[in-house]
Amino acid sequence: MDTEIVLSADQIVTRYGSVQALHGVSLSVKRGQVVALLGANGAGKSTTLRTLSGLVPAASGTVRFLGEDITRIAAHRLPHKGLVHVPEGRRIFGEMTIRENLDLGSFTLRDDTERRRRMEHVFEIFPILARRQHGDARNLSGGEQQMLAIGRALMAGPKVLLLDEPSMGLAPQMIREVMNIVQRLNREGVTILLVEQNSKVALKFADYGYVLEAGRIVLEGPGSKLANDEAVISAYLGNVAA
């Protein structure tokens, strides 16, 4: 495992108006890792990802990506650098075709040959999207929409992928399929920061984990250690079945 830290947050404070959502969050992600960010609803997981990707400005603290301070860089510029965010709830464009949704993911790319290569790679990973590429995205199931959201992110050529609740609302079989894809992307060289309420699913393959509670990191450690600590699961994560 490469020990280089590719993404880090140092004492991040984030506010929504007068409400402080994050209280000095610090974390780091090393190249090649899958890092899980866990916690109950309202703990601040999605806010952390939004702050890292520039969608919500940090009131204070520092975000670094590949050694560069990106705390004040506009969100739309970060995919150019290789930091790509798949938000909670898929956020696909239902009235557009699957292929058009994927094309939107490559807005940073000017090389048509590379765009075609990435499209072929997405279709190889997600054959259902290839078969239905000319159909409207609104006709996809929830799991297929999640595949499309991940595929669209891959079109940007991410170095680090921020995944927010990819298993939300999916049947158990589809959860396993989506998580298998996450593992495959990691094996192919994509570093992943995964927000996931289903802690047992996430900790099965996470190299490292952070537990958020009320906007603060209350616990961290290797994924295997957190997964096997029943006291941790009971106190912070809930007994969520895989």
Describe it.
By secondary structure, the protein is α/β, with parallel strands linked by helices. It has a single domain, classed as Rossmann fold. It contains ten helices and ten strands. A six-stranded mixed β-sheet has the order 6-7-8-3-9-10, sandwiched between helices. A hairpin with a 2-residue loop joins β1 and β2 (19-30). α3 (98-105) runs parallel beside α6. The longest helix is centred in the last third of the chain and has 16 residues, at 172-187. The two termini are 27 Å apart. The model has no long low-confidence stretch (mean pLDDT 91).
How are the elements arranged and paired?
Blueprint: E1 5-16, E2 19-30, E3 34-38, H1 45-52, E4 60-65, E5 68-69, H2 78-81, E6 83-86, H3 98-105, H4 112-125, H5 127-131, H6 142-154, E7 160-164, H7 172-187, E8 191-195, H8 199-203, E9 208-213, E10 216-222, H9 223-227, H10 230-237
Parallel strand pairs: 3-8, 3-9, 6-7, 7-8
Antiparallel strand pairs: 1-2, 1-4, 4-5, 9-10
Helix pairs in contact: 3-6
